[in-house]
Amino acid sequence: MNFTKMHGLGNDFIVVKGLEEDIQTIIKNAKKICDRHFGVGADGILLVLPSDAADIKMRIINSDGSEAPMCGNGVRCFASFVYKKGIVAKKNMTVETIAGIQRPEIIMKDDIVTAIKVDIGTYSFLNQDIPVEGEPDKEAKNLEIKIDENLFEATGVDMGNPHCVIFTDDVEKVPLEKWGPKIENYPLFPLKTNVEFVQVISKDHLKMRVWERGCGITMACGTGACAVAAAAFEKGFTGKQVKVTLPGGDLFIELTDDKRVYMTGPAQEVFEGHLELEKIC
Ligand SMILES: N[C@H](CCC[C@H](N)C(=O)O)C(=O)O
Predict the structure, then answer these.
(1) Catalytic residue at 164?
(2) Does residue 34 have an active-site annotation?
(3) Residue 111 sits in the same domain as residue 6
(4) Is 161 annotated as a binding residue?
(5) What's the distance, Cα to Cα, between the start and end of the chain in Å?
(6) Which residues line ligand 1 (CB under 6 A)?
(7) Which residue among 34, 77, 164, 221 is the active-site one?
(8) pLDDT tens per residue across span 126-158
(9) Whether the predicted interface score ipTM is above 0.95
(10) How far apart are the CA of 150 and the centre of ligand 1, in A?
(11) Are 94 and 192 in a shared domain?
């Protein structure tokens, strides 16, 4: 398997040209391939595939082997990859995902890709969209999450994938490795959920940490940053333009009046590699 290792603020991916590889074997062995000791090591695998509905298609496989409908840091890495490889010769492209068509724009300075701005679609708080157990057309704005002796008030957000957002005074004090998996698998979320703890720094600055569904603690989560920006705006904590600081760095999120979200941030290649699949499968 030939691959390119990339990351978006430390949320890292193995990018593979799907038509040139045995993707069924790759998907079946994603956990081993993503293992940081016995495999290549990554939070997930991004598969480049042809599309009838867009310029190109992206499939996302989490490091536990589950398939995700959408990945914010991933779509920035993906867009940079297909542009630089000449697979899609357009700076403004469309990318088909399970969550819908994403619209990344490659931003360049002196022929270098400096950032990617993505129209990541619209956010929703509706139970039926996230999904969250309960009346389908009710908004998941005051979920009660009970973990051990702690009772959290959470906001459920759909960003094409599910997010459980909890506001706190100090994200550094959150025992994420303890609470993350319990919330990820909480009965309210039939498809499990990504978990974000977020601290309001100012009207235009949020700080967050994330436990990702199917991955665990990551350095950054693009859809998670969009979800916390949407939740903070709806609660009146922030405006429509906000910097979200994650352990791996900053993302810039813009919301529109019709709940559309734009995310801007970097994507970085690290190395190209070759893996003999039979050696670990
Ligand atoms: N673990 C996520 C997919 C990756 C999302 C994250 N890496 C991002 O940047 O949005 C899920 O199962 O919904």
Answers:
(1) no
(2) no
(3) yes
(4) yes
(5) 12
(6) 11, 60, 62, 68, 71-74, 161, 194, 212-215, 221-224
(7) 221
(8) 999 999 999 999 999 999 999 989 999 999 999
(9) yes
(10) 26
(11) no
Instruction: Examine the domain organization and report whether 67 and 39 are in the same domain.
Output: yes
Domain interval for residue 31: 2-119+266-280
Q: What is the CATH number of the domain that holds 195?
A: 3.10.310.10
Ligand 1 atom closest to the CA of 162, numbered from 1: 13
Domain assignment present for residue 38? The answer is yes
pLDDT tens-digit map of 5-31: 999 999 999 999 999 999 999 999 999
Whether residues 53 and 30 share a domain: the answer is: yes
Whole-angstrom Cα distance, residue 238 to residue 244? 11
92 is in an annotated binding site: no
Catalytic residue among 71, 77, 215, 226: 71
Res. 281: pLDDT tops 90: no
* Same-domain status, 47 and 81: yes
Residues 107 and 187 in one domain: no
Residues in the chain: 281
Cα 72 to ligand 1 centre (Å): 7
Q: Are residues 184 and 209 in the same domain?
A: yes
* Ligand 1 atom having least distance to the Cα of 218: 7
Q: Which residues contact 178 (CB under 8 A, 6 or more apart)?
A: none
